[in-house]
Write a structure and sequence with these properties.
This protein is α+β, with helices and mostly antiparallel strands. Helix content is 26%, strand content 38%. Strands 1-2-3-4-6-5 form a six-stranded mixed β-sheet, covered by helices on one side.
């Protein structure tokens, strides 16, 4: 069994891979944090694909999946330096929340 299958598929999660002509251009995942809370993980998209709504569609699909799995909220962490990502998440309805793990160098955000 591979790690992605154990972390995501077998634990109420999902890992998506965005492809362009067979080339990996981005990923995004949602995994169980608690019975009620999912966490967005591994969200990235090659710079040349920004602005094409690929990231939006990926995160929207992950949020839909989280709701279908019964999660009542979704959280994430990103670097304070990732201002473009923070603005993107805020546009989707995420808001800043207190840090939910030991990584105080990151900004925590919630949705739902």
């Amino acid at each position: 069994m591979n790690r992605a299958q154990k972390i995501y598929v077998e634990n109420r999660g999902l890992l998506l891979v965005a492809l362009d002509d067979g080339k990996v251009i981005g990923t995004g995942g949602v995994q169980k944090l608690t019975d009620d809370v999912a966490e967005l993980k591994r969200i990235w998209l090659l710079e040349e694909y920004h602005g094409q709504k690929i990231g939006f569609r990926m995160v929207a699909r992950l949020l839909d999946f989280a709701r279908a799995q019964g999660y009542t909220s979704v959280c994430l962490q990103t670097s304070h330096q990732q201002q473009r990502a923070i603005a993107f998440y805020k546009k989707l309805g995420f808001y800043e929340i207190p840090c939910y793990n030991d990584d105080l160098e990151e900004i925590s955000m919630g949705y739902g």
